[in-house]
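Write out structure tokens for Pilus biogenesis operon protein.
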Amino acid sequence: MRARRKEPRGQSLVELTLGLIVFITVVMFGIHFAEVGYLSLKVHEAAVSPLWDSTAFRVHRMQHQQDNIGDFSTFPAIAPRVMADANLRYQDFDGRSSTARDRDQLSQVFTRIDSLQVRCERDDEVAFDLPRSRMPAMKEPRAGDWGYYPPGQDVGQPTDSVLDEVYENVGGVSCMAEAHVEGLPTLPTSFLEGTRGFFQAPHSVRLDMKTCAAGRAVDGECKGRYGILLGDFGFSDRDTSGHCPLQPEQPDVPCGDNRAYYYAARKVFDQGGRAAGNAGSEFAEFFVGYSPIDENGFFMSYRGEEDGYIERDTPRGESQDERDRPRNTGGIDHKPEAVRRASNKCFLGLSKC
């Protein structure tokens, strides 16, 4: 007797149908969540891009004058400039070109983003503090009761800094960006739902929210910002790169080709108390009878590469010094070497030694 064949009942088809219901739902929402993440990154990019652009602008210049040498008048214009540029370039959410295309939104399969706004401003909270104290310390903050001051000595103020009028703590720039994100009608909000449906809970709620470059919106406003501390080397101008030959016979006389550099260095020297005493001169006068240099005088020498690192003007009589000539830093027919003449030939500059 042969066994009776079973009739096909479509079990595989039922399993495939149920599996596709779940699979299609996962794929749709996977695409939607990926689009939300990608579009949110464009908002972050729009906020960070102007910060990097701000580092290309000059923050300050060095002026050829004895006081208020640092000129920071160009700094306030940096934030408005980079903000306007970022809003223009990222209007279409694509900053790869300098001009935006004729659109103010970006649509994907299930998601759309629009109404991008970038805001940048000067931010004093992005800052570092300069060393401040009373003269002549000025290396760390002090309460002002750290020492005894002789009568008539100018001890300054606790807020003084050796960099006053040369460099200022002007802060930095901070930027934020925000945009509107919404779900498109292509993303179904109901699918086999209800009491007799496969899914017993609502499928989705139409997305409509504000996305921020940093953090989440609080009460409908984006609070998070990105900041950067700005500053540049103020001596990079051509008019502050001239050489400054040493003038040992003329202390406190500025060099003609680089007055801004000279005044800036001397200002720091002055506000630091100069030599803060005459112990060296007193030592030399006690043993030798005179001091060969005024230690409170300001001397400055800057020689650039264009000078070949050789002092052309040598002390009188040095060109006839055959014994030390190969090792000194003067002369016009040789280059300086690391070996210097012995410093103890004439103790403390004592003559006739």
